[in-house]
Design goal:
Blueprint: E1 2-7, H1 14-24, E2 27-32, E3 41-44, H2 50-61, E4 66-69, H3 74-85, H4 92-98, H5 101-110, E5 118-121, E6 134-138, E7 148-150, H6 153-167, E8 173-177, E9 182-191, E10 194-202, E11 216-219, H7 225-242, E12 247-256, E13 259-266, H8 285-293, E14 307-313, E15 319-325, H9 327-331, E16 336-341, E17 348-349, E18 360-366, H10 369-382, E19 384-389
Parallel strand pairs: 1-2, 1-4, 2-3
Antiparallel strand pairs: 5-8, 6-7, 6-8, 9-10, 9-12, 11-14, 12-13, 14-18, 15-17, 15-19, 16-18
Helix pairs in contact: 2-3, 5-7
């Protein structure tokens, strides 16, 4: 069977998807928006017009049994290609809503889903927002890029200009009430509209601002059964109102006691290399997504340690990486299964809110979520990255 993997050239996810296709014995053609050194079959198409890109892919590749879009604009290109081939996929309108945080908010509001108060804001409408603390964010960025907490009208004015400098002056921005609690992330797979929850992570280092770096994710989430039921119900309602029916979905919430607040959604797998935290007995999230795209049965995972987690090492300052220490010590921590540094000495890194990358990833697995968190924190303490601020 032949799979077309549509991916931005700079995606973290290319390697893991290719590894999954190799393990499955699946023929793959990689389609990207820029030239690549990826071995094997490769085609280049522009992502700015998904329908045109889909026509080009079908003409260039020929027989295609399934299409996967890894992230970003590739998701829409993959969906258009699947539609052209008559394969199950999400409606273009649903993907447009999933790719726009304002449209997500409006759809969730129409269904009565609990979420923060929100408004669209720009330079001419700043004074209309009076609820603080609040969060300013772009409509279409990920990895917390451009997300800033504000605690006063003056902060809001500063944040609008700061975020505008990142995403473009005059770009519409979303302002939302800052809600209490811890963040949780839900990974799920849709097949014919049926939702299969794969994992629920909690974030024990839920940031409070002024920026919002992702760090620790631990699964299973340490939630009361009643709260978990409400969370899954909210996931189903949000996905239904947006109109997604096929493929992976990543959804984030705030949980405060039994209160569950919808934050945002993406029609893709979890970001960065974090999907490696979902591997169970050799069945990776990428393999599940590929099997779905090829209409193959989903295998039952082999039993293993029930708790898992990932640490995303945040970029703490903008500048040049001068030294990276302690990686070997982090790998020796009990429960740690893998440490991957995404940057090396001499590279330039950008901190939030302008940045959108991580220094690296640490993965752990153990019998309990508490043990996984302890391992990740110990590995975090062992790793030292020196950055010359610029």
């Amino acid at each position: 069977m032949r799979l077309v993997l549509v991916t931005p050239s700079g995606s973290y996810r290319i390697g893991d998807f290719l590894y999954a296709t190799e393990a499955m014995g699946c023929d793959v053609t990689v389609a990207s928006d820029a030239g690549s050194a990826i071995p094997g079959s490769f085609v280049e198409v522009a992502f700015d017009d998904p329908a045109r890109a889909a026509q080009q892919l079908v003409a260039m590749v020929g027989d295609i049994d399934g299409v996967v879009g890894t992230d970003g604009a590739a998701v829409a290109v993959a969906a258009e290609t699947a539609r052209l081939l008559g394969l199950p996929t999400n409606a273009a309108e649903a993907l447009a809503t999933a790719g726009n945080k304002l449209l997500q908010r409006q759809s969730a509001a129409a269904m009565g889903v609990t979420q923060p108060d929100f408004a669209l804001i720009d330079d001419t409408a700043i004074g209309s927002w009076l609820r603080f603390p609040a969060v300013v964010k772009p409509l279409d960025r990920s990895a917390s890029q451009g997300v800033v907490r504000v605690d006063s009208p003056d902060d809001l004015l500063d944040a609008v200009h700061t975020v505008g400098g990142i995403v473009g002056p005059g770009a519409p921005l979303l302002v939302e009430a800052f809600v209490p609690g811890i963040e949780v992330a839900v990974e799920a797979l849709l097949r014919g509209g049926r939702l299969d929850v794969l994992a629920v992570f909690d974030k024990p280092e839920t940031p409070q601002g002024p920026t919002f770096p992702e760090t620790l994710l631990v699964s299973p989430a340490r939630l009361e059964p009643e709260t978990l039921d409400r969370l899954v119900d909210s996931v189903e309602r949000v996905v239904a109102t947006i109109g997604l029916t096929e493929g992976p979905v990543h959804i984030e919430f705030k949980v405060d006691g039994t209160d569950v607040w919808f934050l945002e959604l993406a029609a893709r797998t979890i970001g960065g290399l974090c999907s490696r935290a979902l591997q169970h007995g050799g069945v990776s999230l990428e393999e599940l997504v590929i099997r779905h795209a090829l209409n193959l049965p989903l295998p039952a995972p082999i039993a293993g340690p029930p708790a898992t987690g990932v640490l995303m090492l945040p970029v703490t300052a903008t500048g040049r990486v001068d030294a990276v220490r302690g990686v070997d010590a982090a790998r020796m921590v009990r429960g740690v299964t893998e440490v991957v540094m995404a940057v090396g000495v001499g590279q330039h890194v950008v901190a939030l809110p302008a940045g959108d990358r991580y220094l690296g990833f640490v993965f752990a697995r153990n019998e309990t979520a508490d043990e996984v968190e302890v391992a990740l924190r110990a590995a975090w303490a062992a790793i030292e990255v020196e950055i010359s601020v610029s």
